[in-house]
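Q: I have two molecules that I believe assemble together. Could you output structure tokens for the complex as a whole instead of separate predictions?
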Amino acid sequence: MSNDDPHLPPPLADALRGAFAHKPNVPARLDESILSRALTKFAQRRRMRMLVRWGSGAAAAIAACIVLAIFILPGPQQSQLAQKKLDPTRQVDMVDAMLLARQIQGGRAIDRSWDFNRDGKIDQADVEAIAHAAVSLEARTIQTERRGLPGLDELGVKISQARPARPRQGAPSIAFSELRKERPQ
Amino acid sequence: MKRVLMLILLAATIAAIGEDRPATAPATGPAGSSRFTYVDLMVDPMGQPLAAWQVEFAAEVGKVTLVGVEQGEHPAYAKRPPYYDPAALAGNRIILGDFSIDQNLPKARTRVARLMIEIRGEAKPQYVAKLMAAASADGTKIPAAVMIVVAK
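A: Yes, here they are, computed for all two components at once.
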């Protein structure tokens, strides 16, 4: 059956037309409310999308910075050793050899004081020299002997303030004999 | 009478020779014997990675001569014998030490060196070991314990 059915009675056709041609009465406030909610949702989605996009970018940038920092910047102990100087008066030990070996392995700039064998370059030979010096009994004996005889600095005596020793009785100093020679006879 | 004097003289001579024998006996007797054994040096870094160590070892009692040094058991210290002063082999005191730049470092008790020694005489030697240095990979000093294990 269609609208153009010639057998449809006109009253029925009018009634049907009236029923389906009905326009629902939607209040304007409801319409605005639905529209504003839809706009809010769309804005939230847009913000979330932006957040994900910018967040992933920022995370990638931070990760790249961390990787660069690990591979380019020196580690804490390496930078410490690069600045640290080897004390020539201190007895070296195996820890010094290990630190220098690690520093050479890392290819970092090292203070010139680590040129232990004084050959003008800092390399594996210096590591070996430090390791051998660390276990040398002779070096420790010399150091012990040095400890037994403290220097003037360790005793708190300044060279400029040190007085010449008095000549003992019966053993006149050279200056005294010279003075006697100068006296008129 | 002469026979009696000769016998007395002979007996005295034999007695004198007999008295002299014990003085020269140690060269060939048990007191002059020597034996070879080994002593293991163990270091326990107490859970920290052991990147460097240095130990002073001495035999305080007995006549002991160090005849050789062998490497440790952990892969980080098994590539070569530890550093030591060869002059120490003539005596009974030695300083040993080694380091490793490997990533894999021992964190538990490990043998760092084996000392081959010759013991002369019957006196039982007493060994002393003192830790001089122990550090982790960044050079930080770590508390470690050193132990001596004498071969049976």
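A: One point stands out. Residues 142-149, 161-168, 170-185 of chain A have pLDDT under 50 and may be disordered.
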